[in-house]
UniProtKB/TrEMBL annotation:
It is a multi-pass membrane protein. This is ABC transporter domain-containing protein. The keyword Signal applies. Residues 344-375 are annotated as: Disordered. One of its GO terms (cellular component) is membrane. Coiled coil: none annotated.
């Protein structure tokens, strides 16, 4: 309204004011003023847009100023061979500049290297905060946090995939409670930029119980997942993030509660083959979980958080003797048989090849049937992929790339517009009337 009526109101108000104060206005003055106003109309119509642009720029400058004056992110951790807390008090980051009370305090323990450690405690006690502090994403109020720091000079050493040095010392992989899923294929989300190692890729799929899920997908592991893994369930997203961490070259895996989004039998499978299997060899795993009864017997170190501090931090055996936690160290839990989900990661290579040599016996309900042959690589039993998890056909894309044409506009474009507007009857009568008038 301001843009349209502004010039007209400006002329009307100006002429009215002159007429009132001068007691009248001559035709020469009126027509001269109207000519000038007509010239100014284009300029005056820009004023509302300039005002809008001014406020947009003001808001943008204010946001940039807040960002530039925000505190710098500093890494308060100290380089070490293992993760340790020495009298540490930590809290979630805050930009308000107000004093903060430590969310976790008096933390004094260190996690063993190349072992499975678990962090347990009630909901909201600070398990995710403790994991964030390990990767330098929390504020250290006092004390010391030690963790491995990766030396990026390894990138120039030419480490090949066939080398035994797949695991890079001091490299850290983090599996968040809300998994990060890219809008790419399932395979690309697992590889995450690394080259494809066929044997390791298949072993990761087996360990994370993803083979049955892939077999149910139309394009197998080439299926595009969409933004944030919209086509996957919560458990599938968690297992996909875990698979990415296992496939990575990181020595330290920090995992935030992967058991809450999976069933009990799947959780047992992940514990047996992903967290304590061949893929976890020579790796440090730190897992925050509520399911302490599931993995306590397989862990070597445990931290029990309660009321803002660690009630217990030490080896597992004393805790098992002093507590009445019901530990499930068998193949079944809650009356469920888990043998169906356990892939033969530790079976003999020759026996596996002989039993799975017949492709006609492949069953979608048996993960073991997806392994057609196995071999020994760096002391690990690995299995090659079959067409049950790979497809040779072109995978469908969830997000299609835009296409464009050059040259004149085709006639069918006009007809599609007319058809979409239901304008064919009107066009017909317009043509008839035009011909008759002509």
């Amino acid at each position: 309204m301001s843009w349209i009526a502004g010039p007209i109101l400006f002329a009307a108000i100006t002429l009215s004011t002159i007429s009132i104060y001068e007691g009248g206005i001559s035709p020469s003055t009126t027509f001269t003023a109207l000519a000038i106003f007509q010239r100014l109309e284009g300029t005056l119509s820009i004023v509302p847009g300039l005002v809008t642009d001014f406020f947009d720029a003001w808001v943008s400058f204010d946001r940039i100023e807040q960002f530039l004056f925000s505190p710098e992110r500093t890494d308060t951790t100290v380089d070490a061979e293992l993760i340790a807390f020495e009298g540490a008090c930590i809290a979630w980051p805050s930009d308000e500049g107000i004093p903060r009370q430590p969310t976790l305090h008096s933390l004094d323990f260190k996690f063993p290297r190349n072992e499975l450690s678990i962090i347990a405690g009630p909901t909201g006690v600070g398990k995710s905060l403790l994991l964030a502090a390990m990767i330098g994403e929390a504020d250290l109020l006092s004390g010391t946090i030690r963790r491995p720091r990766l030396d990026l000079s390894f990138q120039g050493q030419g480490i090949e995939l066939s080398s035994k040095q797949w695991i890079i010392p001091k490299a850290i992989s983090f599996v968040a409670q809300t998994p990060w899923i890219e809008g790419a294929s399932l395979r690309d989300n697992i590889l995450f930029g690394l080259p494809l190692s066929e044997s390791r890729y298949t072993l990761v799929l087996q360990a994370c119980a993803l083979i049955q899920d892939i077999a149910a997908m139309e394009d197998r592991d080439k299926t595009e997942l969409g933004a944030h893994g919209i086509s996957l369930s919560g458990g599938q997203r968690s297992r996909l993030a875990l698979a990415r961490a296992l496939y990575s070259r990181a020595e330290v895996l920090i995992i935030d509660d992967i058991f809450s989004s999976v069933d009990a039998h799947v959780g047992r499978h992940l514990l047996d083959h992903a967290l304590t299997g061949d893929l976890a060899k020579d790796r440090t795993l730190i897992v925050a979980t509520h399911h302490i009864e599931l993995c306590l017997s397989r862990a070597s170190f445990v931290v029990m958080l309660n009321k803002g501090t660690a009630d217990y931090a030490g080896e597992t055996e004393p805790l098992l003797r002093e507590t009445d936690i019901l530990v499930d160290d068998r193949g079944t839990q809650d009356g469920l048989d888990h043998s169906e989900y356990e892939a033969p990661l530790h079976t003999d290579s020759a026996q596996s090849s002989a039993s799975l040599s017949d492709d006609s016996s492949i069953s979608l309900n048996d993960p073991r049937s997806f392994a057609s042959s196995s071999q020994k690589e760096n002391g690990i039993n690995v299995y090659t992929c079959t067409d049950k998890i790979r497809t040779n056909t072109e995978a469908k894309r969830l997000i299609q790339e835009e296409q464009h044409q050059s040259g004149r506009t085709k006639f069918y474009v006009y007809t599609e517009y007319l058809r979409a507007a239901s304008a064919w009857p009107w066009v017909y009568w317009v043509i008839v009337v035009t011909l008759l008038v002509g």
